[in-house]
Amino acid sequence: PHHPELDKADIKQAAAYLAQQANFEQIDSVNWPELFPAKPATEFIIARSNSAIFIHYKVHEKQVKAIYTKDQDPVWQDSCVEFFCQLPGAKTYFNFEFNCIGTCLSTERKSRTEDINPLSAEKTLQIKRYASLGTEPFEEKKGDFDWQLTVEIPFSLLKIDTNNLPTHIKANFYKCGDETSVPHYISWNPIHLENPDFHRPEFFGEL
Question: Which among 32, 76, 77, 94 is placed 20 to 30 Å from 184, CA to CA?
């Protein structure tokens, strides 16, 4: 959906607005059930303003962890949600990974191991974030946790011309936690591989 009013909202206001919307999508593909059967309840809604993409995640899980506070840290080891996307005809894709306190890892790359270009600190700071758990780090906690994260990614970071938007992009959404006590790797669009690998654009869905 197109919500031009989001351009006038700060990220906390955007979070409250998106949280009230309908039609959340589920991140519920357990692609490696024998190795990693855990499926934390995870859903998201994605919207656009005239200048940016907004994603609002809702997560319920039995353990939560956030030890990384510096952008480009290995946030996938914490309680983490991710957005990967690729423009039509592009040979590279973008990956945006966020732990539950909003620390971000972001790159443009050709594959998991090829032509990896981390976004600069200046560009990463343009990604606005609002985390319901705050921004202070903590070691893993166990129990019942509900947390939300809202992010705003400017079209300019994706090399999208705001005056000439593509009709679609390819993308996938993930929930993981490599170094939590219950590692898990779930996705929005299924991944048909023998072992976990999110860096596979051939399994991206269409937005």
Answer: 94
